[in-house]
Amino acid sequence: MQRPTKQAPPPLQVDTVRVVLAGTGGWAGALVVLLFLGDKVEAMWTWTCVAAIALAFLGLGIMRLQGQGKRPDRAPGD
């Protein structure tokens, strides 16, 4: 007996730039907290935040080159 198959839902229209910038903002906030804490935390955590921010900007550049930096199509009147 064959089960009925469902069609895959259409892909979501996501503003990937906004998602990456939100994540970068989170890393930047963590970096600020770590800089205020100073020597109370290991330097590895500070450099982790710096690396994450740098990789996010690298990713934004790559997304721009690939043409993914555009906002999703909006409905007329929006």
- Taken in chain order, the helices and strands follow as HH
Radius of gyration: 20 Å
Strand content: under 5%
- Based on secondary structure, the structural category is mainly alpha
pLDDT < 50 stretches: none
Note the overall shape.
elongated
The amount of helix comes to: 55-70%
pLDDT average, as an integer?
87
Measure the end-to-end span.
48 Å
Count of individual beta strands: 0
Describe the sheet with the most strands. none
What is the tally of helical segments?
A: 2
Protein described:
The chain has a domain at 16-66. 59% of the residues lie in helices and 0% in strands. It is built from 2 helices and no strands. The chain has helices at residues 16-37, 43-66. Helix 1 (16-37) packs antiparallel against helix 2 (43-66). The termini are far apart. The mean pLDDT is 87.
Notable characteristics:
elongated; about 80 residues
Entry summary:
The chain is 59% helix and 0% strand. It has 78 residues and is an all-alpha fold.
SSE order and pairing:
Elements: H1 16-37, H2 43-66
Helix pairs in contact: 1-2
